[in-house]
Amino acid sequence: MKGTQHRMECPKCGKVFFSWRPDVLPGALAKCYFCGNQFEDEAARRKPPEPPPAPAAAAGAEPPKAEPPKAEPPKAGEPAG
């Protein structure tokens, strides 16, 4: 499982320590090595990243072309053109 070590500060005793945090479980509780207090680290409170936008069209396909504007028919009494 992939992960990294993070510097954490216990909200109960205030001691600073390093703890390994898995990338796939950002909401897992951290445990203070000194007092045993379990708490959520700041990564657990972050909003998850937004998913990337869906691809527009399949590769190699041309996007649809816009239709040219339709000309209005001439009004009665006006010359065409």
Strand arrangement within the widest β-sheet reads 1-2
Uncertain stretches of 5 or more adjacent residues: none
State mean pLDDT (0 to 100 scale).
Answer: 76
> How many strand segments?
4
Q: What is the helix/strand order?
A: EEEEH
Largest sheet: 2 strands, antiparallel
Question: For the CA atoms, what is the radius of gyration?
Answer: 30 Å
What does this 3D model show about the protein?
The protein is mostly beta strands. It has a domain at 3-43. Helix content is 5%, strand content 25%. It has one helix and four strands, in the order E-E-E-E-H. The strands form two sheets. Strands 1-2 form a two-stranded antiparallel sheet. A two-stranded antiparallel ribbon has the order 3-4. A hairpin with a 6-residue loop joins strand 3 (29-31) and strand 4. The radius of gyration is 30 Å and the shape is rod-shaped. The N and C termini lie far apart (73 Å). The model has no long low-confidence stretch (mean pLDDT 76).
Quick rundown:
This protein is mainly beta and 81 residues long. The protein has one helix and four strands, in the order E-E-E-E-H.
